[in-house]
Amino acid sequence: MTSTSSTQHTSVPAPRGVPKRLLDAIEHATGVLYELVEELDQTTVRGPSLLPGWTRAHVITHLARNADALVNLLTWARTGVEHQAYASRADRDADIEEGAGRLMQLLRADLDSACTRFIRACRDLPHSAWQAEVATPGGQPIKADGVPWLRLRELWIHMVDLNHGITFDDLPPEWVEEFVADSIERFDGRGPSVTIEATLPGGRQRSWTLNGPASTSVIGSGADVLGWLTGRTDGAGLRGDVPDLPAWG
């Protein structure tokens, strides 16, 4: 399975301030996710994901609940009434644990419904509401036009976590640089000082300095760098003095 799969979903018109390519990318990623989930059965969905303690069913349920959480943020932007992504971390975790035990057909139906709600919320949000301030599930303030990016990142990272044919090498090449840059930003002010040098799809080189100035460098492909930054790999495919990182979050 690669990231070249097509999707038949209705195209979402691009709201002002939100690039059409981002919303198209979400629809494409959602289509790839549906194909992956369709390949699973009642046995394989109980197999281990790349996330400790989670089966593939947990990851699928998390992706559904994440879609609903981001709909809450878009509702907040549309109405001006605060709607946190999740009622609490405990409620989030309980919902995932409960949902992961369902039959395969119910997991698929739940995922489809949640993804459809998110796409519809993007389509229906008034232009002016995209500039409203909301807060990420982690509590960071953002403009609502940052919510689609959160969904795109969630989709691709957790498709890798499904441990079912998608790896970081399969991510859409046009988004790899942005995924790496976004992951590096998540370590701003925490973790080691290191220069990261990535070879991006097409052979272009780019470097970032994390918590610099740095005396050590980590070098590798964008896919290998991203796997290490997100804690999904141990950095064995990288060159240089590869430090341990705090939890990706």
Q: Could you give a quick summary of the protein structure above?
A:
The chain has helices at 20-38, 56-79, 89-99, 104-124, 147-161, 176-185, 222-229; strands spanning 133-135, 141-143, 194-199, 205-210, 217-221, 239-240. It is α+β, with helices and mostly antiparallel strands and 249 residues long.
Task: Explain what this protein looks like in three dimensions.
The protein is of the alpha+beta class. It folds into 2 domains: 20-166, Up-down Bundle (Four Helix Bundle (Hemerythrin (Met), subunit A)), CATH 1.20.120.450; 173-240, Nonspecific Lipid-transfer Protein, Chain A, CATH 3.30.1050. Helix content is 43%, strand content 10%. Strand 3 (194-199) and strand 4 form a beta hairpin. Helix 2 packs antiparallel against helix 5. Residues 1-15 have low confidence and may be disordered.
Structural class assignment: alpha+beta
How much beta, percentage-wise? Answer: 5-15%
Catalogue the unreliable spans: 1-15
CATH class membership of the largest domain:
Mainly Alpha
Largest beta-sheet details = 4 strands, mixed
Instruction: Give the CATH H-level superfamily of the largest domain.
Output: dinb family like domain
- Work out the helicity level: 40-55%
* Largest beta sheet: strand ordering: 4-3-5-6
Query: How many E-type strands?
Result: 6
Radius of gyration from CA coordinates: 18 Å
Find the CATH topology of the largest domain: Four Helix Bundle (Hemerythrin (Met), subunit A)
Mean pLDDT metric? 91
Q: CA-to-CA gap between the ends?
A: 27 Å
